[in-house]
Design brief:
Blueprint lengths: L40 E2 L1 E4 L13 E4 L4 E4 L2 E2 L2 E2 L3 E5 L8 E4 L13 E4 L4 E4 L2 E2 L2 E2 L3 E5 L4 E4 L13 E4 L3 E5 L2 E2 L2 E2 L3 E5 L4 E4 L9 E2 L2 E4 L4 E4 L2 E2 L9 E5 L4 E4 L13 E5 L2 E5 L2 E2 L2 E2 L3 E5 L4 E4 L9 E2 L2 E5 L2 E5 L2 E2 L4 E2 L3 E5 L4 E5 L12 E4 L4 E4 L2 E2 L2 E2 L7 E4 L6
Parallel strand pairs: 1-39
Antiparallel strand pairs: 2-44, 3-4, 4-7, 5-6, 7-8, 9-10, 10-13, 11-12, 13-14, 15-16, 16-19, 17-18, 19-20, 21-24, 22-23, 23-25, 25-26, 27-28, 28-31, 29-30, 31-32, 33-36, 34-35, 35-38, 36-37, 38-39, 40-41, 41-44, 42-43
């Protein structure tokens, strides 16, 4: 899951002309994948309907419920907003639909909240308002369109740049910045009992913010981010077994270079790390970590995504999809992406024909058959409703 730094950098990005849609081969070799590998360009984008769609916003939270995408919060130029919508793709274009959710009992307006699907409810927790961290959250019942406040007793203190994951029965919140200092504290919210239990401090990674966290099926893995004595980025991490209450350190040998504001996902039995920053330097390498052997493998550079931050990374079955973000060092949002195929151990570029308007700080979810992209910003302004999101379908390989 993506974890952003405490606040966005206030800057204006000059817009350039049209981008070259030809896939970029960063390996220095000829464009295209190996004859036995996946095609150099994969996928097809379709436009999402804008009928009844909510207004554009930066850093919305989103999740897939199994039948619809639920979007909560985000920010517009005047500040964070509270509105919540659900998007139903439908089997046919005429079946696509956006519907507003009830606001009664919903969490307050915020951007960059953690939004997840438990299997029966949507959880919304945390976020920030004009740089002020928000604590607390609520659960939305899709069958009743009602919100229920989560128990706040022993909940983590408000923080920025933290990470959150869902284990299947618990939400774990960890790390972040409290009162200007990174912390190594966290807590587990148990759905069955609606209560919080603090995560152990012994053996935990050093305090950090702007890191990422993923769930492997048995451990929460936190990696990277900004530490107090390494504010530009870290290359260390740790894995927490919540049942045993034990942390273990991740191997440093072969780990990606130190960074923050990268993206991560757990897919194909591995944690993937893509993109990010080290101070003002962009990171153009990507790697995967094996939780069984505690080993890192650098991913190939051929057709890999260009250096970027503010992008999304989703697990899509046998592949992982990187899309959008702010390309570095050129300093411009992009509509490019890349697909990593685990079986072939190779990258393909996403098809840019019909791709959504270039953006960063957007939301992306995988439905089981396609990736949905919505919201985000360009040059620090929200993507407006007339610049719709997109639906990316990736053909299987081999066919």
């Amino acid at each position: 899951m993506r974890s952003l730094a405490a606040t966005l950098t206030a800057c204006w990005v000059a817009l350039g002309g049209c981008e070259d849609a030809t896939p970029k081969d960063t390996s220095g070799g000829a464009a295209g994948a190996a004859e036995t590998g996946p095609p150099a360009v994969r996928g097809a984008f379709a436009v999402m309907t804008t009928k009844d769609a909510p207004g554009g916003r930066i850093l919305p939270g989103a999740t897939w419920t199994g039948s619809e995408m639920v979007v909560f919060g985000g920010a517009v130029p005047l500040g964070p907003i509270q509105s919540t919508f659900r998007y139903q793709p439908g089997g046919r274009p005429e079946d696509e639909a956006w519907h507003p959710l009830s606001r009664s009992g919903a969490p307050g307006a915020r951007r960059n909240p953690f939004v997840l699907w438990t299997g029966s409810e949507v959880l919304v927790w945390g976020g920030e308002v004009l740089g002020i961290p928000q604590s607390g959250g609520a659960r939305w019942d899709p069958t009743k369109d009602t919100w229920t406040r989560m128990n706040a007793t022993h909940a983590p203190a408000p923080r920025l740049g933290w990470s959150g994951i869902w284990t299947g029965s618990e939400m774990i919140v960890w790390g972040g910045t409290q009162e200007t200092r990174p912390v190594a504290r966290g807590a587990r919210w148990r759905a069955a009992t609606d209560d919080w239990v603090e995560t152990p401090l012994e053996g935990a990674p050093t305090p950090r913010a702007g890191h990422t966290a993923v769930w492997t099926g048995s451990e929460m893995v936190a990696w990277g981010g900004a530490e107090l004595h390494s504010p530009d980025g870290s290359m260390s991490g740790g894995a927490l077994d919540p049942k045993a209450g034990i942390w273990r350190a991740l191997a440093l040998a072969g780990a990606p270079a130190a960074r923050t504001d990268h993206a991560a996902t757990f897919c194909g039995g591995h944690m993937l790390i893509v993109g990010g920053l080290y101070a003002t330097l962009s990171r153009n390498d990507s790697a995967r970590w094996d939780p069984v052997t505690d080993t890192w493998t650098t991913l190939p550079r051929k057709l890999a995504p260009s250096p970027r931050t503010g992008h999304t990374l989703v697990c899509a079955g046998a592949t992982a999809i990187v899309w959008g973000g702010l390309e570095l060092p050129r300093g411009q949002e992009t509509d490019s992406g890349a697909i990593y195929d685990f079986a072939a151990e190779a990258w393909s570029s996403t098809n840019r024909v019909g791709a959504p308007f270039r953006r960063r700080y957007h939301a992306a979810v995988f439905t089981g058959s396609e990736m949905l992209v919505w919201g985000g910003s360009q040059a620090n302004r929200p993507i407006i409703a007339t610049e719709p999101g997109g639906r990316l379908t990736v053909e299987p390989f081999p066919p």
